[in-house]
Design brief:
Structural class: alpha/beta
Helix content: 10-25%
Order of helices and strands: EHEHEEEHEHEHEHEE
Strand content: 25-35%
Distance between the termini: 23 Å
Shape: globular
């Protein structure tokens, strides 16, 4: 079982796309931007083991404003710009023009709630790509509820205080942390054989 927060369209720069169908994994794939969510849902429409959910993550149930590249402007930018959805408009405006930013209101829930409602608290893998909302995602559940074996997080854009908090949170949760620059992998201690 795998949980992905920030699944986008299920294809672009997606580490899970090649393996979910190939290995028959069950997936809870969370994407807040509606047109990316529609593409994600279409991709997995014939796979009953995959559950796409159109939410953003928050500390409480409700709604939030999220900013993303306008679909009308996508042709003017490289493909990776489609992954720039964020609660922080400034995060997008570092890479795209202000007039090309679209703003929408999306439903939000804590990850703990989404996991519980979908019976995914026993998932083995967590993949997070949330453009600056990493601390929010990892604050929205407790390790005693959900402690996957492997976590992958895009961390290349994180400022040092946030990255330090995240790595400390992983260490305190019983994970070994491997920072590869662009992404960080956290592995639950004792899960891998000591010979590796």
């Amino acid at each position: 079982k795998v949980v992905q927060v920030g699944a986008n369209d299920g294809t672009m720069a997606d580490p899970l796309s090649p393996v979910i169908g190939r290995f028959g994994w069950s997936g809870l794939l969370i994407e807040p931007v509606p047109h990316y969510f529609q593409a994600l849902s279409a991709k997995y429409s014939d796979n009953p083991k995959v559950r796409p959910k159109n939410y953003a993550i928050s500390l409480e149930d409700g709604t939030e404003t999220i900013h993303h590249l306008s679909p009308e402007a996508e042709a003017n930018y490289p493909a990776w710009a489609r992954g720039l959805a964020s609660f922080d408009r400034n995060h997008l405006e570092r890479a795209i023009k202000s007039e090309d930013v679209a703003t929408i209101t999306v439903p939000c829930h804590p990850l703990s709630t989404i996991l519980s409602e979908n019976e995914f608290e026993d998932a083995h893998v967590l993949v997070v790509d949330v453009e600056g909302a990493e601390k929010l995602v990892f604050s929205s559940f407790r390790w005693n509820q959900f402690r996957p074996r492997i976590i992958e997080v895009e961390t290349r854009h994180l400022e040092k205080p946030v990255k330090d908090w995240l790595f400390g949170h992983f260490h305190n949760g019983g994970f070994d942390v491997y920072d590869f620059g662009y992404d960080t992998i956290a592995v639950r201690r004792g899960w891998l054989p000591s010979s590796l």
